[in-house]
């Protein structure tokens, strides 16, 4: 499982900003016992259409790989079947007034048919057109905005617009509640700077990371501002890798100094 948080707010210039963060650990279980875990797993995919992040299911199933292929525009698709078309259909209400991501429904139905023990997949979805929007996609493909989500799950309307999924979901919700109460200007002040929102997501995810054994690794962060997607995952990883390398060099120099002192003849 995992911990994923998506939040949406207004900036001081009345511009929508969406930030989605995810941990990068995948846990492997045998029965109810964790036997291994893999770090640096990418759970967020981006494109000109927006962002999608997933939780649950088997990490490398054939079904998930087929679903990934929907988000690759490398091959020419039939008219009406591009990823933008698929996303548009998913967030457009049908005749019954419901939004359904049919491809997610098909993904999880295939898992059920193969009798996978792993949980089915659910998603946080952020779209750019017609305006930046944040959605929850459940395992049956139902697409819910925050207004409907808050009614279904009894989330206070005064809470920051957000979606949480994964094994660390409850911890994330408690962290959000605590941070909202500490927000300057009171709980109804929902204007954020990009820095505030990025740190809000990071710190909330670290709250889950500290207690949930299925949440771990670095935090992957993606933002939508206006009609553009900014994926900062590789940038953050490079910075962490560079700092780690620098620290190894510092340690090496300390050990070199110890050796040099041992080489010197005693006075």
Give me the secondary-structure topology:
Elements: E1 3-10, E2 16-22, E3 26-30, E4 33-38, E5 44-47, E6 50-55, H1 62-69, H2 83-91, H3 102-113, E7 122-127, E8 133-137, E9 143-144, H4 146-152, E10 161-166, H5 169-181, H6 194-209, E11 220-225, E12 228-231, H7 233-263
Antiparallel strand pairs: 1-2, 1-10, 2-11, 3-4, 5-6, 6-7, 7-8, 8-9, 11-12
Helix pairs in contact: 1-3, 5-6
Notes on the structure:
By secondary structure, the chain is an alpha+beta fold. The chain has two domains: 3-231, Glutamine Phosphoribosylpyrophosphate, subunit 1, domain 1, CATH 3.60.20; 234-267. Helix content is 36%, strand content 24%. The protein is built from seven helices and twelve strands. The strands form three sheets. The chain has a five-stranded antiparallel beta sheet with strand order 10-1-2-11-12. A five-stranded antiparallel beta sheet has the order 5-6-7-8-9. Strands 3-4 form a two-stranded antiparallel ribbon. Strand 7 (122-127) and strand 8 (133-137) form a beta hairpin. Helix 1 packs antiparallel against helix 3 (102-113). The longest helix has 31 residues, at 233-263. The N and C termini lie far apart (61 Å).
CATH architecture of the largest domain: 4-Layer Sandwich
The number of domains is 2
**What separation lies between the terminal Cα atoms?**
61 Å
From the helix content, strand content and strand pairing, which structural class follows? Answer: alpha+beta
Please list the strands of the largest sheet in the order they lie side by side: 10-1-2-11-12
How many extended strands? 12
Q: Roughly what is the average pLDDT, rounded to an integer? A: 81
Sketch the topology as an H/E string, one letter per element.
EEEEEEHHHEEEHEHHEEH
Broad CATH class of the largest domain: Alpha Beta
Summarize the biggest pleated sheet. Answer: 5 strands, antiparallel
Q: What low-confidence regions span 5 or more consecutive residues with pLDDT below 50?
A: none
Look at the structure and name the CATH superfamily of the largest domain: Aminohydrolase, N-terminal nucleophile (Ntn) domain
- Total of DSSP H or I helical runs spanning 4+ residues: 7
**Principal-axes shape call:** globular
């Amino acid at each position: 499982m995992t911990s994923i948080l998506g939040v949406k707010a207004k900036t001081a210039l009345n511009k929508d900003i969406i930030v989605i963060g995810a941990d990068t650990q995948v846990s492997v279980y045998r029965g109810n016992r964790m036997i291994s875990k893999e770090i640096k797993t990418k759970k967020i995919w981006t494109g000109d259409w927006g962002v999608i992040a997933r939780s649950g299911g088997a990490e490398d199933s054939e079904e998930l790989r087929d679903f990934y292929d929907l988000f690759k525009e490398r091959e020419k698709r039939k008219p009406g079947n591009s990823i933008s078309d698929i996303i548009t259909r998913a967030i457009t209400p049908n005749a019954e007034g419901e939004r359904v991501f049919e491809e997610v429904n098909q993904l999880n139905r295939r898992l059920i048919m193969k009798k996978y023990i792993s949980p089915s997949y659910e998603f946080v979805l952020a779209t750019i057109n017609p305006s930046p929007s944040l959605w929850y996609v459940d395992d049956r493909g139902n697409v819910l905005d925050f207004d409907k989500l808050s009614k279904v799950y009894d989330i206070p309307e005064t809470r920051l617009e957000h979606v949480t999924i994964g094994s660390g979901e409850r911890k994330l919700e408690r962290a959000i509640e605590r941070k909202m109460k500490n927000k300057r200007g009171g709980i109804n002040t929902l204007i954020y700077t990009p820095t505030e929102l990025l740190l809000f997501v990071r710190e909330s995810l670290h709250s889950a990371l500290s207690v949930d054994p299925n949440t771990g690794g670095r935090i992957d962060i993606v933002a939508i501002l206006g009609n553009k997607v900014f994926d900062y995952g590789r940038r953050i990883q490079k910075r962490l890798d560079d700092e780690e390398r620098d620290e190894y060099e510092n340690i090496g120099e300390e050990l070199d100094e110890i050796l040099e002192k041992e080489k010197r003849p005693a006075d």
